[in-house]
Amino acid sequence: MLYELLYPLHKKAEWLGFLNVLKYVPFRVILATLTAMLISFMLGPWFIRQMQSKEIGQVVRDDGPETHFKKRGTPTMGGALILVSVLVPTMMWCDPHNTFVWATTAVTAGYGVIGYLDDYLKIKAKNSKGVPGRYKLLGQFAIGGGTLYYVFTAKEHVPADWWAIKDRVSLPFLAFHKHHMSLPPWLYLVFAVLIVVWMSNAVNLTDGLDGLAIGPVIINGGTYLIWAYLAGASFGIPGVLEKRFVVASYLDIPPLSSAGELSIYCGALVGAGIGFLWYNTYPAQLFMGDVGALALGGGLGMVAVFTKNEVLALLLGGVFTLEAVSVITQVVSFKLTGKRVFLMAPLHHHYEKKGWPEPKIIVRFWIVSVLLALVALSSLKLR
């Protein structure tokens, strides 16, 4: 935890005064992002060699697109590399007393364990089944629910501004203080857990093509970085003693003094994602696996809850939302009518079956994700 170790030293000696810069969140965001990228770049080649030597390769569905058959054996479980690249820089540069960061990293790591077990069983059994869905969901609800329950009840460990608004749901494009939904505490907790579990599985369903999931994850992480920083940012007004300009009040978004530290987690997520994309871009040298997809989705869901963007998360993560909805639609339609709405679900497989080249699908989904991120950011002023 370099922040806690180094920052106090700026008072010890005049020549160490430059360490005072560590008190600024944007500087630590940059450090976290760069650290995550360096870890990813440095460990990536070694990680790929280890997966190849242990013959830990991708298991492909027999009923999937024929173009995927050639991907059998490509090293997988690259999400483990992402998790190291996210969690280590976050712990290095964040304020270790911030409950939001600890809760988010706990869910990220916990969901990573579930994903690891799923990947391990797939590789061991040489099939694409893995952990049965009901047990996977049970683990996700237990980890997400337990972590959020602690944050929602540990009043002494969270700031007062969070405690005042924790049960409110922010409505996109509407002023928070005038337009929000206040839910009973138990109902909001259920809602928050559902958002986290939904995002986790939606990212996992999106992870089906080279770089398809990690691109929107990077874009979502960068957007949440901005949002988290603005939610906790305040600036002194020159010439006015003890007067602060609170950005959240000006923008009428939920004011959360501790949310700024989450931007360090988001920065590490962006850096780790870029580093992983170096090896995951088409044609992929390394696949993410459930160990990465479940964990990253869970982390994004937690940030959405802590920045009070639970509903906006469905828009910002619209690519993930569409992928998940396509699977639900396909299953419900087939069970009720015996007919399929899509040639194959999730949605990206539908376009593969229509003959779209894989790189075209990937880049177009990225473009949609960028557009949705811009729409989401525009809600900062359209209030």
Secondary structure topology:
Layout: H1 2-6, H2 25-53, H3 79-93, H4 99-125, H5 133-153, H6 160-165, E1 168-170, E2 180-182, H7 185-206, H8 214-232, E3 234-236, E4 244-246, H9 247-251, H10 262-280, H11 290-306, H12 312-316, H13 318-337, H14 347-353, H15 358-378
Helix pairs in contact: 2-3, 2-10, 3-4, 3-10, 3-11, 4-5, 4-11, 5-7, 7-11, 7-13, 8-10, 8-11, 8-15
Brief synopsis:
The chain has 383 residues and is mainly α. 62% of the residues lie in helices and 3% in strands.
Q: What can you tell me about this protein's structure?
A:
The protein is mostly helical and 383 residues long. Strands 1-2 form a two-stranded antiparallel ribbon. Strands 3-4 form a two-stranded antiparallel ribbon.
List keywords for this structure.
two-stranded antiparallel sheet, 15 helices, mainly alpha, 383 residues, 4 strands
Largest sheet: 2 strands, antiparallel
* Total strands: 4
- Principal-axes geometry comes out as globular
Mean pLDDT, to the nearest integer, reads: 88
Structural class: mainly alpha
Order of helices and strands: HHHHHHEEHHEEHHHHHHH
In spatial order, strands of the major sheet run 1-2
Query: How far apart are the first and last residues' alpha carbons, in Å?
Result: 38 Å
Runs in which pLDDT lies below 50 for 5 or more consecutive residues are none
- Structurally, the number of domains stands at 1
> Helicity range of the residues?
55-70%
Radius of gyration, Cα only, in angstroms?
21 Å
